[in-house]
């Protein structure tokens, strides 16, 4: 999540986490699971040393847990749900993922974009991914406190409703334990928007249980 002025280059990480005996490629072997992460700066390692973000930690977790999975990070700093929606069809065609993790919506909130538009874009992405045969995991976000409690509740509830209606997986609040900590400044970079390196293991801990349920 990140303003247009801070937008940086598209960062794509593709990691093959094939570990343990018996997981090597061979004739007739089952095609490995392919996880596509579609997010914004929270997933694109904005402001972090390369290889320290939660997506990279996820690749390491997959290896540790001996999941044969290919991980593709197609996150772009500054992206919105509109941007994700426009990019997803080509990504689905190129990577043919078995799982799609959608971490978008935070920039929509920061820019004051209509909630109905954000919801429509998220629903379209879920539908596109599912139509392509992928399981979907939504990473829920919350709006900044200055938008008021009513808008905050509506925004958070949007992810819950979408997941329920589409039978997608859900992490209710991606920044749990970071954005709602009693001393949140220790978890954020100087801009007070982007989680720092110390927060990345917690972000992974928020995602992993829900993703693990979807992995075979």
Automatic annotation (TrEMBL):
The record ties this protein, via SUPFAM superfamilies, to: SGNH hydrolase
Q: Which CDD domains match?
A: Lysophospholipase_L1_like (cd01822)
Residue ranges constituting the SGNH hydrolase-type esterase domain according to the UniProt record: 37-198
Q: Which Gene3D superfamilies match?
A: SGNH hydrolase
Query: According to the lineage, what is the superkingdom?
Result: Bacteria
Q: What is this protein called?
A: Arylesterase
Q: Which organism is it from?
A: Limnohabitans lacus
